Amino acid sequence: MVVLSVPAEVTVILLDIEGTTTPIAFVKDILFPYIKENVKEYLQTHWEEEECQQDISLLRKQAEEDSHLDGAVPIPAAPENGADDLQLMIQAVVDNVCWQMSLDRKTTALKQLQGHMWRAAFTAGHVKAEFFEDVVPAVRKWREAGMKVYIYSSGSVEAQKLLFGYSTEGDILELVDGHFDTKIGHKVESESYRKIANSIGCSTNNILFLTDVTLEASAAEEADVHVAVVVRPGNAGLTDDEKTYYSLITSFSELYLPSST
Ligand SMILES: CSCCC(=O)C(=O)COP(=O)(O)O
Ligand SMILES: [Mg+2]
Predict the structure, then answer these.
(1) What is the value of ipTM here, to two decimals?
(2) In the CATH scheme, what is the code of domain 4-22+129-256?
(3) What's the mean pLDDT in 181-192?
(4) Where is Mg(2+) bound in this sequence (predicted)?
(5) Binding site for Mg(2+): residue ranges?
(6) Whose CA is nearest to atom 7 of ligand 1?
(7) Model pTM?
(8) Ligand 1, closest atom to CA 163?
(9) What is the DSSP letter of 258?
């Protein structure tokens, strides 16, 4: 087995979710279709609720920022003229969400609505999150060795907690010391990793970030975070240069913690 030695200064392991802890197929084939199939009914049912109105406001703001993009779908201002306007507005939000999802956008607005929609599916037991089989045993081992384990995903913190709270492995939320999402910044921006270190109360070089996306690894590395790229079935392929440049692991069990011997 290939072994990647974790530098002695590392005290925090920061995990991406999709493509790292969890198969991309679970997100693409189960979580995302749930949104596309249910978003219209969800909006019709929850429209009057404050949480839903906050989600719409955020989506509308994002739509304004996106107005220069090819194919962007605008969301009109709040309806004034009754039921017909409301139905047009709901359809605009549905079209905007589907457009964003067709591009796999990671906007905070989209991710916030998705997190709220998944709540019902997870808590009712209709969906259970999948984790690669090496994830839970490795995380337990790291924690026993004194490591802190944090999550940094484009999925909202609320969605992350649903995944860890309602998984095929049971409720494994207690294995996570904390969560970060795009509210702290985007994963391809190095400043986000500095803010995460600051929020945890450590230096960036105390963190090892595991992700499937080399753009994220590169941003983290620029902030002096240690990185390893996770190669999982179903992940996007890496170029030869990326394979040479980055430390690669195919399972969390390949990480060797000097302190855990
Ligand atoms: C954690 S919620 C479901 C996945 C999701 O919506 C997403 O965008 C995952 O992105 P990641 O940063 O974990 O690759
Ligand atoms: Mg990922």
Answers:
(1) 0.97
(2) 3.40.50.1000
(3) 97
(4) 16, 18, 212
(5) 16, 18, 212
(6) 155
(7) 0.94
(8) 1
(9) G
